[in-house]
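Lecture 7 notes: from sequence to structure.

We start with a single chain of 236 residues. Read the sequence below before looking at the structure.
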Amino acid sequence: MRTKYKRILLKLSGESLAGTKKTGIDSVRLAEYASQIKEIVDGGVEVAIVIGGGNIFRGISGAASGFDRVKGDQMGMLATVINSLALSSALEAVGCPAQVFTAVAMFPIGEHYSKWRALEALKQGKVAILAGGTGNPFFTTDTGSALRAVEVEADVMLKGTRVDGVYTADPEKDPEAVKFTEITYDEVYNRGLKVMDLTATALCKENSMPIVVFNMDLPGNLAKVVAGEPIGTLVY
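Now the structure, written as tokens:
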């Protein structure tokens, strides 16, 4: 398998993991993701993954419902751990070794995250699943993804979503929305596009971490992105 990238940070949304169920974990979607990830690992790509928790609990939504914001965000962190354990189990079921690292100490559920232990796992051919966000409230999993991508020295951050790139407006609401093939970090900010939150975008810009936004729900797309095929949108 010819690949453009040697090491990637793959950001998956919790909502996507819910599949057609809208909440919880869809076992069919989980198996599809595991199959796509195994394909690129078998091709020699080192894969770190950050997954959101919105299919189970979203801290900022909880705060709007009356939860204390810090406790709500901590609940959201725990949701990402649940999703990470599910993904690691699905990967191991298809013969792809995986290891869960958590941003806060949570042994034996996962190993406490450190850059060096995560890199060691990647070099051993394991998928490193980085759970718990940054370990701090008021930061999204997008920011956690950007931070981890920079920390593990990934070549690119791949943001797998249910849409096939970045558009001038929400393509699910505006039929006239136009897709970008490439767009700069500054243009994302100036246009107010919802690619990631501003903290994550700024972190990627400061550290020259390119982002590719693509549709992860279409089987085979992950391998195409890793091979350098022009699907999705490159943010640089």
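The radius of gyration is 17 Å. Keep this in mind for problem set 3.
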